[in-house]
Amino acid sequence: MTMLAAILALAAGTYLIRLSGAVLRNRITLTPRAEAVLKAGAVVVLLALAATSTLLVEGAWAGWALPAGVLVGTALAWRKAPLAVVVIAAAATTALLRLAGIA
Amino acid sequence: MPHRILDRLDRGVLRDSAALIAGLFIVGVSFGAVATAEGVPWWQASAMSLFVFAGASQFATLGILAGGGGLLAGVAAGLILNLRHVPYGLAVGDVYWTSLRAKLIGTHLLVDHTAAFALAAGADRGKARRAFWTVGAVLFVMWNAATVIGAFAGRLIADPKAFGLDATLPVILVALVLPSMKDRRTLLAGLLGTAVALGTSAFLPAGIPVLLALVGLVVMWKGAGTGDRAAAA
């Protein structure tokens, strides 16, 4: 019962959160500058999310294998490699390091 | 409805999002498996994936409830994690703001990776639209299928660390935001924001640090002129 109530509340709340940003955005006229700041805002949040989920797992140091894999993928992306190559290289690096006993 | 969605699919993005599938699939499977291990029936785990569709918050809420943390604490933790969708909606909310049906469905499909793909399309609105709907449709189907599979067979395959698959979701986000980093001020804002998020992660509840990263945007206001010159150069 509690679980169902939680699902309902989380679903409704999450939908409203998702709705709020778009409604606000589509209600006001944006200058190109404001538009650039909003875009940069999402980029900043996404980058911070990627960084925290790479370096920390449940609040503690994630170990070397995961950040190393993401770093290799990032370097390839920087060199304009296709996304599939970026992802496979990142996963392979992380997997091989773990195989070698490096957490 | 299905054929409408199929019309909007983009082959290039479909290929790119194939890279996403493995990473997200294993997370969905592990969500289903964790739910089953905690004694949550499969259909409740599925209902959560269907109606919440936000991985990290699903794990958090489920974990707190299963651990006896109570309804309020569980839902609050999940909602705090999801607050980052507000800046996403502000940035790409125009992409799916067309018909009423598109608005309602698009809102539900706003997640980290749909926002990132739409942003990566840059000023090309048609491309942003196709990217958003393609990735959104693929992720929604995958996430829900993975949850069901995980609930029944999760113990066999549920380790997200297997094959380094936990590296896929963050590296895709980085690859998608990299082109935006060519703008020097966005790069500075990103680096400053990331430093703030990492520095505060140790003592703030999950979800708040990535929002505090928005502090990095101060560099967008300071010295606007130099940034414009840099962009023009």
UniProtKB/TrEMBL annotation, chain A:
It holds the Pfam family AzlD. Keywords: Membrane, Transmembrane, Transmembrane helix. The keyword Membrane applies. The chain crosses the membrane at residues 6-24, 36-55, 83-102. It comes from the Bacteria. This is AzlD domain-containing protein. It comes from Glycomyces paridis. The lineage of its organism: Bacteria, Bacillati, Actinomycetota, Actinomycetes, Glycomycetales.
Automatic annotation (TrEMBL), chain B:
Keywords: Cell membrane, Membrane, Transmembrane, Transmembrane helix, Transport. GO terms for cellular component: plasma membrane. The chain crosses the membrane at residues 12-35, 47-80, 131-157, 163-181, 188-221. The keyword Repeat does not apply. GO terms for biological process: L-valine transmembrane transport. It holds the Pfam family AzlC. It is found in: Cell membrane. InterPro entries: Brnchd-chn_aa_trnsp_permease (IPR011606). It is a multi-pass membrane protein. Belongs to the AzlC family. This is Branched-chain amino acid ABC transporter permease. The lineage of its organism: Bacteria, Bacillati, Actinomycetota, Actinomycetes, Glycomycetales.
